[in-house]
Write a structure and sequence with these properties.
It holds the Pfam family 2_5_RNA_ligase2. InterPro entries: Cyclic_Pdiesterase. The protein is α+β, with helices and mostly antiparallel strands. The strands form 2 sheets. A 4-stranded antiparallel beta sheet has the order 2-1-7-8, covered by helices on one side. Strands 5-4-3-6 form a 4-stranded antiparallel beta sheet. The longest helix is centred in the N-terminal third of the chain and has 32 residues. The chain starts with a helix and ends in a 5-residue tail after the last strand.
Amino acid sequence: MSSSTSKQFSFSSQHVASSPSQANNNNNNLNNNQKKKNNGKKEKEALLMEYGTTEIESTFGNIFSSSSSDVKNNSSKAFHTACCFIAPTEIWEPIQEMRSVMDKAYERWPPHINFLFPFIPEQYFEQAQELIREKLARVEPFDITFSGVNYFAKNSSVMWLDQDEESIKKLQQVQALIAELFPYCDEKKNEKGEFVPHLTVGQQALKFVEKKVKELNSKWKPVTVRVNEVCLIYRPDKETSFSVIHRVPLGPGL
């Protein structure tokens, strides 16, 4: 019994003992594991920031192929498509100046206000744009004013261009009409169940966001733009920038 116990302790002692090279290898493994853990956390934070969820891998590709060819029978939504308003390029410069240093989605998204995101699979775009065109035929083009910078208070707070009250009402009207067609995509609301139109310019830690927003507002000059179309946009994968597939005009058209 004692001999067996002695051998067991002797084995344990030899097993625990390690050479300097083994110790270095163990430390390297620990460091690498910690780096992977930190990188995984950062990746999840980035996904949450851009998409509102980390479960997006299965939304790219042809997973949404359906036996139905009619968009009216569809209930699937995709994170690689969106229905939005894209700000006219003549006001991009001051917006992109902010986004280039503060917005994690700067290279993938144009300056935009999402009406529905996630949206429907791109295979239904042709039918969808016709339905949206009919809906928006009753809405005349209108102006909105980006009055300043506001933010959603979260751990990583989203900063965005706010609009005046009249602009918000008009954008909410457009969003509500489109959402009637695709109610299963109508999920980005505040705690009151309201759609809050916002053009994201960046993210900031909660403890610094008020100071940053004050700084940005001291430099921002209100700008008025025309809303005369809605864009259906698409990208094939997470690394590719969105492209406009359809531009749907407001108003009765020709």
